[in-house]
Amino acid sequence: xxxxxxxxxxxxxELNNDGVxxxxxxxxxxxxxxxxxxxxxxxxxxIKGRDPSKPLSIAFYDIEQLEQYADISKPEKxxxxxxxxxxxxxxxxxxxxxxxxxxxxxxxxxGVRIPDHYMVKMICKEAGPIITxxxxxxxxxxxxxxxxxxxxxxxxxxxxxxxxxxxxxxxTILDIRSLKILRE
Length: 184
Known about the structure:
It is built from 6 helices and 10 strands. It is α/β, with parallel strands linked by helices.
């Protein structure tokens, strides 16, 4: 891990110890934990005041890592690869059986991202896929800077990674199965 900053190493260590993190993505500030951290997933729902039946998205290092957790066809993989070049997308795909907990997504689908953010990529490469959901109270506007994150969220996370959000807006959500845009 000699190519990682000390801060990213600390975040990876916290994730490996079942921590919940606050971190910048390419779009907005996010809350995250490892996808197998059931307690962390429940904490994230609680921190946001989010209905636990609402699905969460997952950030991956690259498309090969994503394929370990999602069933995507060759055409879907091509579309994902092309769209990633264009900008920030969350893709709704079919999850791979037995790989993603029901607390993340109850039905057969899951939102997936490959953020265009070096720190997030390195975290996912070293720690594995992580939850990625906006760091705001449920229904409130997404935080594009650390200063935008409300104190009641900041006080409930284990570690904070500081950085910039390149796009400063939430991702476009594309259901790759039906090719419908769910959020512009």
